[in-house]
Specification:
Chain lengths: 208, 208, 208, 208
């Protein structure tokens, strides 16, 4: 009987991927929904509008960072799904937990953009990233143990996947710690690091 | 002529699944869109922000519960779609009714989060869950009678599907009744129960 | 050269269907995003909240009508896409125009819900439905003339498709004219008619 | 080792297309979310509402232009994806950059609609379009050099793809320069030009 319900639900990687793409797409687009333009009353001429837009620069950097982060994790999840031969009920729920972490990213970003000089906001933002990484790590470990990986996934690939997540999380943690020197130092570190990984990827230690 | 229009429309499980994934993805992400951070004016330092975030905890629990619930019903609908050999016009409309219930979930959640101590809000929330379950039950019954199920769906599986829905609804109803002892008791019961079902699934009576 | 660019773009029914499902999913869910719960300050007890929710009933009917309408047109577009053997640049643009009409539906609905007693709002709403039907009609006509239909689409099916659209539009127009007797008469007519078509479909004259 | 991580991630055109469709769908629908109806307090009768809706005309034109633009770029990206035999990590990131430009389109549109007489808003809007075109150009160049194109993509098609992008961008730049004569001249030029390209496409120089 225990195996029985598992046959009824779960199993389809395709629909999990479809739901994931949907949630990522909405989360990535909603990020920018919170970018409110300058308030109409304060703008009296072209110069005012130009200054108001320039004053949004740090806010835009925070959104760009979140878009990058979501892009990185979208890639990371896709890499995992590509290596699963099938899913089961429990793996599906691990990925739903991952998607929950994705769906709260717009909230964390809004919080950070509004309180960009508050350490608490940066820590909350980092906690969100940590959650994303942790769930992805659990997902891979579980899939490996429950023998849900494809046959061509060697032990080497499997270890590389886990190393990527832990390595990237170590760097995010380092970046978060830099908030000791101010939040902008943290953010700059994370953005530059993410950019480097994307641009020189895969020559560098990969970032998840 | 009666059969004629049926051939024209309906029939495609794939596009129904795609629309469903899209609506679930938007509904699940919109849930969190309503999580408004603390108001800027009330925050004068790190401690204020930390307290304001902690004060959001019950609100976050309400959203987590809705995400869980939507996840459970996404799984439930997927299980059904996997067992349909084809669709027809009427089955498509039953699932559109189901998707309507999904799309009002962010509204019910917002209502509950804002009026978390009001019994009326909890009853409205529960009515939404009841609607989700009822439509899903009707969908399976109809598909079975209209012979839209795949050939390998035994009578046993079929009964198990219906039992899952009625069993889960009974528990949701029980949880809603606990609002007699206060809304937090109800919410705690539902969240704990959902978590247990997900974690020990399928050993336990499954929850839909 | 004229044929040349056509080969470069267009052509894929699959991605058009995916974009359509996405836009329908977002539009259908956004409808309910505008359902704002009662204002916190006005609610002093359970009875207040219950009355405030009951007072939302007409608003909810307007949203239900829009969900039904979008469901009907989603079915209609799906029926067409199922019968296309391939697409071209122009047909893709006709469907993008259709999707534009879909994407302004939340705006029309919000307008109607807020100004539910104003004839102007009802006319604007009906104009949106007319646009949906007109573009869908143009799409089918064009596909037939440009020989983009599958080979098994008989002249009979083809005429039936066009009759469905014009028949349904005639009824929507009739419904809109009933606003002479008040907007609620119009809305009731449209909702009841839509429900009848869905429930007794395909025995009745089908509604698109 | 360098090739190793590339095998792990990237590679799937299908999921990139799915994410793109999702982001386009959300962005296209969110455009209209910002179309706020007239304020309730200012409307005392049918005539007021009619005038208020007519007064929204320029705003609606701005949104229509953005929908057209997104439709054009959706076509353009689709054309590219259709010609890729596979993807790699770097190409995926180029397309994520493209999707970032898509996701900020609702922000640029809102800015333009609110500050429709400000040259700064029009320049910001045009910069967004320039970014879309530039990233799409880089994407094609990179795919060609990294040999990610399908075998049947001749040098002729390849040059045509690049010419389309540069040609269209030249016209968008010309349109933006027309803001010297007022923003409405610019907007009218872009809308008319886009419409012509869509209607007489592919006989005309194609617009990307």
């Amino acid at each position: 009987m225990a195996m029985f319900y598992n046959q009824i639900t779960g199993g389809s990687i395709e629909r999990l991927a479809a739901l994931s793409d949907g949630i990522f797409a909405v989360a990535m687009t909603l990020l920018v929904l919170d970018l409110h333009g300058p308030v109409r009353e304060a703008i009296h001429g072209e110069a005012d509008l130009r200054h108001a837009l320039l004053a949004m620069a740090p806010q835009i950097v925070a959104y760009l960072m979140s878009f990058l982060t979501l892009g990185i994790f979208w890639n990371g999840q896709q890499a995992q799904l590509n290596h699963f031969s099938r899913s089961n009920q429990r793996l599906t729920w691990i990925h739903l937990a991952f998607l929950f972490a994705v769906s709260i990213m717009p909230f964390s970003t809004r919080l950070l953009a509004e309180y960009i000089l508050f350490r608490t906001a940066l820590i909350a933002y980092w906690a969100n990233i940590l959650l994303l990484g942790a769930v992805l790590f659990v997902s891979w470990r579980y899939a490996r143990r429950a023998r849900l990986l494809k046959d061509d996934v060697s032990r080497e690939i499997s270890c590389a996947m886990e190393r990527r997540i832990t390595g990237a999380q170590a760097l995010y943690a380092l970046g978060a710690m830099f908030c000791y020197f101010g939040n902008y130092v943290s953010i700059a570190f994370i953005v530059v690091w993410a950019y480097m990984c994307i641009a020189w990827y895969p020559q560098l230690v990969p970032l998840e």
